[in-house]
Structures are given as structure tokens and as C-alpha cells.
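Problem 12. The chain below contains 166 residues. Write out its predicted structure in C-alpha cell notation.
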Amino acid sequence: MDDRRPVSVDSPPPGSLRAVPGLAGLLTDYHLCTEAEKGAPVPDPSRLPDRYRRETEDPDHAFADATVLVARDGGAAVGCVVVTGPVDGAVEVKRLWTDPAARGRGVATMLLGAALERAGDSGARAVRLSVWRWRTGAVALYERLGFTVVPSWDDRADLVCMERPA
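Solution.
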């Protein structure tokens, strides 16, 4: 029997992201892990590149033109994803991250499902994302959800760009 609480996904109201328990930690962990995977480990959050540090310190400002979806176990955030507003008929999914302790519970799938629903509600025709080549589990998840590799819109090495209909 599984005695874990069910995970829920919601979109905190604008201006309230700083108050979401655990969200800043998730964003920080995402960026610290990404920098380490890129071969440029950062010793602590204060040393993150400015644009990433701003996301962790002031997510309301950093994501003012986007929707942040939060997966919660009880009141604490265990996962997050950012969905940008439509540009040229497409929304972009960014910063998908699940707390390692909550992995294997379908949290990322739930977050992506909510992101895809949000994209459809926005009137977007497509949903796009970029993912580092070495994140093979994430690439496999995206492929299961209908994303396919498309020509890159970003010139960073090892970045895979994917897209699917909204």
C-alpha cells in the first residue's frame, strides 16, 4: 500500500510565487544541477549567473509574463514548470523540475499535462521546449507526450529543441 499523499498541481496567483513553500529551492536546485551538468559547477546559489539567480530570488518578477505551475505534496512544492505566454503561435515550457525525493510518482507528467492544458487554453498552436541532450529521462518523457525534435532555435551545443501541437 502506498501511504504517500496525493500530489496536486496549481498555478499560484501573480505576485505570490515568493510565498510558495519550497519553490525557490526547486528553482535553485534546477539551476545548480544544470550548471554542474554543463561542467561549470557553482559552489552556492549566490554564484549562479545573474539571470538564474534572479529567478530564484524573485520568481514573481522573473516570470511576470509566464505561468508557473507548482506540484505540491501537502503544502510544499515538489515540482514546478514555467509556461511562457504565446509568441508567434507557440508557448514554451521551461524549468521543469521535480524534487529528487518526489521522483517516480508521476509529478513531471502531471506538471506537463497541466502545462499542455494551459497551452491549449491560451490559443497557442504549438508547445516547444529545449532540453540538454544528457537529460535522457526528460527527453524520453517529452517523446512519450508527443514532442519531436525540431531544428534548433538556440545555438548552444548539446541543447535539443522539441515541439508538439498544443
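Discussion. Strands lie at 7-10, 66-73, 76-84, 90-98, 126-132, 148-149, 159-165. Students who got a different answer should revisit the alignment rule from Section 12.3.
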